[in-house]
């Protein structure tokens, strides 16, 4: 049902955080596969991805990556993002009734400062992006980044929250 795709570069710890949060989806059988697109990592990102059973690609073509995804739906995430309790049910409910894209709700305790939100806006993948493979396949082109896909149209809010990746990075600093 669902393929999770992330892009990383030297995100070993963040990748481990996200993958551990996705275990419940694999146990319940909705996560079919996880694809990690690497931008030249020199840390243990490939080891973490391999240990979790992910496909770790160092060279890829976005249309081919999307064609090879096993799920009919794609969940695009940043390494470090952690979907909170109830994320599996929220995705299953959304897919059952709505063919359009969706995003998680942000956790209230982890909001960027007001001026940052006002001046910069949120990065396209900060709250993840759930979209059907069919919808993305029509617009995918070589060299396209996941953030470019997530910039694409309106998205509904899922009935679950996500801790954004920037929180994990801020805690490590």
UniProtKB/TrEMBL annotation:
Entries under InterPro entries matching the protein: Nucleotide-diphossugar_trans (IPR029044)
Domain of life of the source: Bacteria
UniProt keyword list: Transferase
Molecular-function GO term, any one: transferase activity
Identification of the protein by name: Glycosyl transferase
